[in-house]
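Run folding on both entries below.
>entry_1
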Amino acid sequence: MTQTDTFLEQLKEIVGDTRKFIENFLWIRDKQQRLVKFKFNEVQEWYWPRRTPRDIILKFRQGGFSSLILAEFFTKAITTPGTTAGIISYETTSTQMLLEKCDLFYKYLLEKYPQIEWPEMRYDSRNMKAFPSLDSKLYIGTAEAKVFGAGSTITHLHGSEMAKWEMRDIENFLAGFEEAVPKKDNTRLIYECTPQGEGNEFHRKWLAAMSGNSVFTPHFAPWFMFAENSLLEGSQFASPACRGKFAPNADEVLLMGKHSLNLDQIRFRRTMQIERKELFYQEYPEDDTTCFITSGGGVFDKEKLKRMLDRCRPPSIIEDGLSTWELAVPGMNYFLPADVASGAGKDFSYAGVLDDDLTHVASLRGKWKPKEYAHRLDDLGKQYNNALIAVERNTGWGDAVLDELINVIHYPNLYHQRDYQDVNKPLKVGWYTDKHNKPSIISAVRDAIDSLQLRTDDEILIRELLNLRQYVDTNLNAQYKSPPGGNDDGVIWLGIGLKVRELTPLGGTRKPAESYGYSKR
């Protein structure tokens, strides 16, 4: 029997259960530097059953993700033949700390459990731990080294604090790494980071994952998930302003109600806000959108949108791309603006139902071919008292939706747009967005948010509003769009809906569609 066979036989009841191995055999130093058995904290408990072969983790600082992933990869390397694992950190100090934890794991395997014949761990280099009898290895290094993975097949890869990696060719670097990890169920590729502002590669990948345009599963861990993030009344570590008894303000009451927080957690929050100032939402995120936004970023009011996000209710009905918060009220006028995509690619077809009081009562979002989307709009419009449907016709996809609504479905209430440059021209069915009216669309959305008239519970829409940015092109024209990896489909339908409501008399404009460029079949 070989050394490997002996080892596997000794641990046959536990080798297949990574968590059991970690909590039975690995030792670690806690925050008080005491040597303790590795026991999962509540954040690690939450993440463990949610793991997938491709994960992206947005987290608060010092929650234990890096330690957990290191323990997982070390366990795989020492128990599973053929494992090639890598952990890529952003700087030398954190790399050294991970290497020391790895050495600690192995040291106390030998000292605490000498009855087991553990595989020998060799140091092929300062950063490479190898287990020759298992043909396994674990590399821990910095992103700037760019030495691990070239030409290799990697089974487990963790990119730690990816937004802090400093390199010019990060897209090519990441593409090479992702190609090195086979698309197999027994592999793991993880990106994990605290939010570090917008526009970096981590932010782009997060937005893509949240939009459903990525193979990565997003996992968001807010600061209040961790029990240690609280301060007792009278704690010497609390800010003097909240060390004793205090009454939470309106925003804190909202946060406490939504997430079941207590005053000790709010005391911690206030203290960290004083200490970390504008960095608080990056280091201790509360939602997965505002944490990326730096001071002054964004087209719309961040604080008002954050309050809207905190107040969001789940839909009462969710069914096949349709989310419903309120059913139709007899006699109420409804508007149904619709942004149209091809049904493929990263963009979504996205429509929303607004009542005449600017309450957003339903959303339709998905990737459908234009004809199918038209029938879904027809069904939704009829649910809401033959809502006035305003389809953006900027693309051939929009034309295809309108053609189906007019010539096949014969929907009775379609919006017709007047030419703002020549009011004598005949009206045209649908809505056309261009450089002349897009600023007014953005202005209408901003006014609805600032005046607190808009009421929505759609978290996807609010995130898109938070993410929208203004850029200036080479001709000094303002351009509004989401950062790379994000979507702005919801911003478009909302802006169209607000303008349509402003420009349309109650009851809509029921004109014969064929007289405006569409002929019946």
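>entry_2
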Amino acid sequence: MLDQTIKKICNTENELIKAGNIKGEMAEFGNFLSQVLQLSEPINTCYARELENMKQTAKEANQNTLDGMLSILNNIFYFSYGHDMVYKEKIKAGCFMHEILPIIQVEMETEIKELFNDLSVIPENSKYQKNIEAITSIVAKHRDFNSLLFLLYVNEWQFPSDWQKLYPQNAHELEIMINQSNITIGDFLNALVEFKIVSIKDVFLAIENPKLREDYLHIISGLEAGKKKEVANLGHIHLPVGYFNTNTMQDFVKNPKPSSPNSGTIILN
């Protein structure tokens, strides 16, 4: 019962986020994408529209067409040059609101389940409405935390001086969460890779030819392994996501692998 309630609230949040992203991307992202693709005319588009068009095309597409689609999704939409420049523009167009990553979802559900159980969310409970409002508030807080991580990702993990203004309802709690979080930059980057790969696979799952579908899903799984290997080779993956809220680049140069948000010692796995 509680799991279903959490899922329903999260699905509502994600649908609102998707709708907001579409609106923002249609206003700004299409123009940016037309520049990247060196098109003569600006285009009015968004990720959701392009992915849906690709799904329809993929159903009966031949190998050449599918290869082209995979190249576009890989090299432009999800893993572009310039440190993920295109996807970061998508994030900015959506005001840093992004579907909640599973790594954040787990922490959110843990917090909710420490406070509530199945009996908390049955309509017969006298505190039902109050409990639903409290759960919705926790979801909103983690939604904003998820958004903050995407803001930091776009900003190379540096904190803009006025970042709190983006989250007026939860700024104080987010400050505490980000400073205490054990999520590392590497954790976030791997979670983002997984999210992107699921999005790419979703397009190719539409292929009606079973053998062709299996072949491309295998290729995409290989792509995921390659991208995670790239993440593993980065020099800052052991840093907590909130590291630069309390530390400077000089601190990082002196001690590039702190063991926790509150420690300066180096622990290598």
